[in-house]
Design brief:
- With 124 residues, this protein is mostly beta strands.
- Strands 2, 4, 5, 6, 9, 10 and 11 form a seven-stranded mixed beta sheet that branches.
- The N and C termini lie far apart (40 Å).
């Protein structure tokens, strides 16, 4: 059974930082591309960042490149999203998720399973 548990969301001012954590069950962590997508209220989902736990390769949405960094801790079966220089447009519900794979590549646009989500709110 896929288990994805997010934590670390909250409210920050523009320019601030936040670190999200995603704890996965062992099988999910070792077998899937893991990362985050976000969805602002009333808007479509946007893939944010994804990491291939086996290959340690990453992919980012253009909107967060240079500001967000995804990383992993294999011993803890945990994926992190360090978010710096936050902007009001980053405000959304952030979901830890498994992502599709095409050969060795993780597909940022394709999410399969996800957790309950954690709210990130950035004020001006």
């Amino acid at each position: 059974q896929v288990q994805l548990v997010e934590s670390g969301g909250g409210s920050v001012q523009a320019g601030g930082s936040l670190r999200l954590s995603c704890a996965a069950d062992r099988d999910t962590y070792s077998s899937n591309c893991l990362g985050w997508f976000r969805q602002a209220q009333g808007k479509e989902r946007e893939g944010v960042a994804v990491i291939n736990s086996g290959a340690d390769s990453t992919s980012y949405a253009d909107s967060v490149k240079g500001r967000f960094t995804i990383s992993q801790d294999n011993a803890q079966n945990t994926v992190y999203l360090q978010m710096n220089s936050l902007k009001p447009e980053d405000t959304a519900m952030y979901y830890c998720a498994t992502f599709g794979r095409f050969g060795p590549y993780c597909i940022l646009e394709v999410q399969k399973y996800w957790g309950q989500g954690t709210q990130v709110t950035v004020s001006s």
